[in-house]
Amino acid sequence: MTDVKKLFDLSGKVAIVTGALGLIGKHHCFALAEAGANVVVADLNELSCQQFADTLPTESIGVGVNIIEKASVENLRDRTLNKFGRIDILVNNAAINDMFENPQAAAELSMFENYPLDMWQKSLDVNVTGTFLCSQIIGKVMAENGKGSIINIASTYGMVGPDQSIYKKPDGTQSFYKSPSYPATKGAIINFTRFLAAYWGNKGVRVNTLSPGGVENNQDEYFVKNYSAKTMLGRMASADDYKGAIVFLASDASSYMTGANLVVDGGWTAW
User: Fold this and answer.
1) Looking at residue 100, what is its pLDDT?
2) The domain that contains 242 carries what CATH number?
3) Going by C-beta distance under 8 Å and a sequence separation of 6 or more, which residues neighbour residue 46?
4) What's the total number of domains in the chain?
5) Is residue 227 flagged as an active site residue?
6) Does 102 score more than 80 pLDDT?
7) What is the pTM for the complete model shown?
8) Which one of 167, 182, 227, 242 is the catalytic residue?
9) Which domain holds residue 97?
């Protein structure tokens, strides 16, 4: 019988995290490193990636990557193998969540009727095609080695439609609409996970989704209140709330779990 602490131990494992410099991405990196993994911090700016990697408690490296460019993802794979000789874990965390440069225009531009085609296409490229490329190029290494864990980061909005009312200001005006591209791409990720889990199950590669809820991060007070009221726990998540889930999915603690969607959302989708 395996000791439960050993099930969660990632010592000697190598994990790649894309979108690693984002709010949750940094916490994913720390969680994996704290569990013993060597982490490859992957994001657009290589210098920033390496500076952050130097703060992790295990030997880790930073690699600049553009996940929608095949050659860039191949470089990420090759540099990881050159440094560590193996890849055990891939966290497909990189994603676009729409931001509008002009807050005054955000409400109008984010309406479905006005939503720009280029923003829709960019979200598809990064959120879906980027996840596809990373899984294809890096996951192939795991499949050839007969083991590995791929964790795709989705969202509660990949399962349910956005409640646009939480973006209303106290005066009743709409500050923003959750745009169509984020739910569409995150829903695609959940089913892509199922495809890949079925395809590589006989190769020993487990593929699961983590669907987090919203993280409190200096949003307007009215939004935090509106969002929190829709969760069973009555609060938004902290970035630390996903550390346990990411280690669970990466480790042998979830060795009989694949094709699943682990929802960690304070009860948002369970009403």
Assistant:
1) 72
2) 3.40.50.720
3) 62, 63, 64
4) 1
5) no
6) no
7) 0.96
8) 182
9) 4-263
